[in-house]
Amino acid sequence: METKTAIQGIKGSFHHAVAMNYFHQGVKLEECLSFDTLVAAVLDAKVQHAVMALENSIAGSIIPNYALIDRNDLSIIGEYNLTIHHNLMALEGQSIADLTEVHSHPMALLQCKAFFQAYPHIRLIEAADTADVARSISAENRKGIGAIAPKQAAEIYELNIFAHSIQTIQDNVTRFVIIQKKSDVIENKQVNKASLKFILDHQRGSLAAVLNVMSDCLLNLTKIQSLPVIETPGKYAFFVDVTFDHLHQYEKARKILVIMALEFKILGEYNTAK
């Protein structure tokens, strides 16, 4: 059954690859130029789901996306870890020596900076989306301009790949989550991971006490991220991911944490990425 899913970017982007892999090809895409537009598509029921990047093994967390999920009362129903390969591509009939500029997303440029030290004649220019640069080069026949983008973008927009996997650190993984409106979530008793948000009293040992509860209930803390509570300077919200072997371990911890926290919210209960 085909599912309609929003992605940040266009066909050929990493978000597109995740949507295709997660939903096993049965997906109709809603292309969004920003994460705000992506969230709006979910809230307005234009799509059933959306794919959202949440953290990268090199660059760390994408902080604004945590806030988007929380503020708009969205729910995480799944995750997918994608190994990121950045490729240098341009129109056929050229070589790297012919390129004067390479355009891509700022993060892609940063992760490939070492590769271009051998090509000082090339200017690196920031763009909004990796795949969109590839599309524009093809559509406008832009010679002398290269793109850093996924392999899939070269295939879709018929560009030649000059160099594969040019990222400085080869082990580069981005974690994506699948989100939807909380009201549409179907309860799943087979889950083994949860994303939670809580706010604690601003006093010594409050966070340590929460972490002890998680440990005592045999939860494995895989992520912790703090964000300031804008309305209350000096107070922080904690976003955590936990995994567990048995659901009752998590349910026991959850009941205790609801009592301990000033505010407690479940952002998602789902299965870990395979």
The portion of residues forming beta strands comes to: 25-35%
The CATH homologous superfamily of the largest domain is named: Periplasmic binding protein-like II
User: Which segments are poorly predicted (pLDDT under 50) over 5 or more consecutive residues?
Assistant: none
- The outline comes out as elongated
Instruction: List the helices and strands in order.
Output: EHEHEEHEEEHEHEHEEEHEEHE
Q: Give the proportion of residues in helices.
A: 25-40%
Task: Summarize the SSE layout with pairings.
Elements lengths: L2 E6 L5 H9 L4 E6 L2 H9 L5 E8 L3 E2 L1 H9 L2 E10 L3 E4 L10 E4 L1 H6 L11 E4 L3 H10 L5 E5 L1 H6 L3 E4 L9 E9 L11 E7 L6 H11 L3 E9 L7 E8 L3 H14 L2 E8 L4
Parallel strand pairs: 1-2, 1-3, 7-8, 7-9
Antiparallel strand pairs: 3-4, 3-11, 5-11, 6-9, 6-10, 12-14, 12-15, 13-14
Helix pairs in contact: 7-8
Describe this entry's structure for a reader.
The chain has helices spanning 14-22, 35-43, 63-71, 106-111, 130-139, 151-156, 206-216, 247-260, and strands at 3-8, 27-32, 49-56, 60-61, 74-83, 87-90, 101-104, 123-126, 145-149, 160-163, 173-181, 193-199, 220-228, 236-243, 263-270. With 274 residues, it is of the alpha/beta class. The protein folds into three domains: 3-84 and 172-182, Periplasmic binding protein-like II (D-Maltodextrin-Binding Protein, domain 2, 3-Layer(aba) Sandwich), CATH 3.40.190.10; 87-163, D-Maltodextrin-Binding Protein, domain 2 (3-Layer(aba) Sandwich), CATH 3.40.190.10; 193-270, Alpha-Beta Plaits (2-Layer Sandwich). Strands 1, 2, 3, 4, 5 and 11 form a six-stranded mixed β-sheet that branches. β1, α1 and β2 (27-32) form a beta-alpha-beta unit. α7 (206-216) runs antiparallel to α8 (247-260). The longest helix is centred in the last third of the chain and has 14 residues, at 247-260.
